[in-house]
Model the fold of this input.
Amino acid sequence: MVWQRDFAPELGPLTAPVTFGGDVYVGVGPVVYALASDGQMVGRADLPGTVSSLDSSGGVLRVSTQEEDYTERFTLGAPENLALPVQERVVFPPDPAVTGWLAAAADRVPAAEVPQAARQDPANPFLLLRAAQLAGDSGDSYAALSGVRRALGLTLPFPVWTQLAARLDAAGFSAAATLALDRARRDAAARGLDPALPVSRAALSAYGNPSNYVGILLDQGRLGRAETWMNHLRELSPRFEGASALYLRYAALLEAQGRVGEAEEWRQFTRSLREGSLYNLGPDDTLVIRDVARLAALALLLALLAALLTLLARAWRAQGEDTRAHGGRVRSVWRRPLTRARLSFLSYASFGERLVVALLGTALLTALGGWQWANQTGQGLSAPALNIGTYGGGWYDARLGDLNLRPGPDAALLTGLNAQLSGDGTAARAAYLQAGDDACALNNLGVIAQGRDDAAQARDLYRSALATQPDLAAPAYNLGLNPTEPGTLFQQTYRRGEPRLCYPDRRILARAVSGDLSATLAGDLRRPLDLIGAGDAPPTRLGAALLASLLGLGVLCLLLLVPRAAAETRLGRPAAYRLLALLLPGSSLLGGAWGGVLLLTWALALAGLSPLTGLVRFAELPSPASPAVRGALISVLVLSYAVNLLAVLLVEASALAQRRQERREQG
Done:
């Protein structure tokens, strides 16, 4: 035996060693080690999945990685600077077992064995840092600084740089931590990560969890170091999940120290991230829309029930008289169903009143559809594949198929970006051409043209994109107009000289994953039974409510065609009807133009106050527990009752005057 190298089972499965170019290659977990003829490590490749095989039969060294449902293949270059270059683009999945493998491998080494392990694996920066800390603890500051410099001289993926920066910071090497963060941004930029794209909490955690470390620094009151990390997040991943809360917390701490200008600048930056979201509501846009739809649905339901109850009270006596000859209200349902349908209590309402009720039903169906659309869109926008800070890679491809994107320009843009970031310009161009005159697609076609050294066509495409969407930053940047948006500085700093790609904002992604509200409602109309679980989706209470609303609206529309069952004089104004007219503002005035408005105003105020009961909650809307909100809603409620009382009194006075006039004429 010439030499031997042992790997702990906890590091992952091993592949069969392969000899290539005089070196021995072996896969361990998600990395490939290159070992020289004397057993010394000369290079390491960090890959996005567990290495399943190595192959050198074709004159090049190829490696395959295998995860649950996908396989990726890469080509390795010759070792240099303790690294194995990978010719293809490597996109790391949001999996801490992959991105945190080096740190976990270093942490499992006992302290007494760290110096030897660092000599055997000089490309593991965490081993080098642990060895440097041990040297510093023993008083050898030169060896400690030398170990830190060796760690900073390695070639590492950005998640490892971020993890290393946190450990350097905690160990007191602040300047080295700042340099590691800069290396992390440069590597992330080279791999295609962009500040225009969102990053989920899970992905950010796998990428080194910088937001968590910022929270630790803020808890410790170390605002000086926190500023470095906050700027790192702002440059690389400003749209990470939970960003607004962290930015505002940091701004509040700055303001408490008297740094009011800096605090306001961070607040302004937080507000600027709302651009491109749905209705500029920010990252919680679908939650806000969902709560607005829920509030509107509750208000419309209250208004509809109030209108139906009042109309029932007015028609009760006349309906009882008309159905007596057919067996009564109940028995006539099966004895004379057609006659009973013509004598429903809504048949006694005027056409105008029935029309208002039908409009309320239509609005309720639309509100429930908006609620459903917000749920579906929010679920689609939070899909892991769309929240890793970039597009492409095996993990992304495997997860993107689960989204079932709607065919159209928006889905074509995602397909094109995936191909373009992976270096397939031909496939990207074909996808962008399917997007038609989409401004983003035109800009990215210009980037492809510029890559082919066709500057004239590239500028024409950039101008066309800017003419189609004048506020789009990417073509403006490519034309040298220097727009101010978070991705511009990042592009200038870390991808200088390269044209800027255009990435979809949340509005584009929302159309790609669920379409607009009309598409949702159209799908419900085409497949109504899917609302109660007849299709692939499981049944939900919202689906049942939508189906019930759809059926009720159909009945209301049919009743519009039924002749009125009794005249106004016969119906009169029964006592129960008058009482409900006072208790339910606007419900007795539906025949007039303002009756429906008054009824909706009352119902909206009541729905807004409903969270005080504890039965419902609108988390993203102003709470009625706030004195200002509660006072405003109560004022609207009182005003609706006051206006209704005045209107009812005028109607009663008019009816009384009419009866007196009739008695005079008869007398």
